[in-house]
Design a protein that fits this description.
alpha+beta
Length: about 140
């Protein structure tokens, strides 16, 4: 198993209330992103959110891998002033917003955005300079 440092293109910022990484568009990015999110949330003493945040990040990074070819960004922001929410963003260079669809029982995929929508306080997408960002918020423990 490779170390996190070998699989991450760049750690942009992990100080204070924001942590940001860029991962290559390769299958190992899902596992590496999940580990990075868990590690940062542990460092922020937010282990109670680690499983859910890692699962939702996995779904969004998987979507990016399925449809985009460039690097994938993951960003965590602990927002003290925004009703105590953890903002999680996943960015990729594909400008098209993801489409939520209804997965049938026999479908092997298509549930990622449903999971994000049903598990988060709010979620959405926004265009970026070279692609798009899908974001969601999780409530911080009170």
């Amino acid at each position: 198993m490779g170390s996190l440092a070998w699989e991450v293109i760049g750690v942009i910022d992990t100080e204070g209330d924001c942590a940001e990484w860029t991962f290559p568009a390769e299958p190992g990015a899902v596992r590496t992103a999940r580990a990075a999110v868990r590690g940062q949330l542990h460092g922020w003493h937010l282990d109670c959110l680690a499983d859910l945040a890692a699962l939702l990040v996995s779904e969004l990074v998987t979507n990016s891998l399925r449809h985009a070819t460039g690097p994938i960004g993951v960003r965590l922001v602990r927002e003290a002033g925004h009703e105590g929410a953890l903002l999680v963003e996943v960015s990729d260079p594909l400008p098209d917003p993801p489409r939520e669809r209804v997965a049938q029982a026999e479908d092997e995929n298509g549930r990622g955005l449903q999971l994000v929508a049903g598990s988060s306080l709010r979620w959405g997408t926004r265009p970026g300079g070279t692609g798009k960002t899908v974001w969601f918020e999780l409530a911080l423990p009170g």
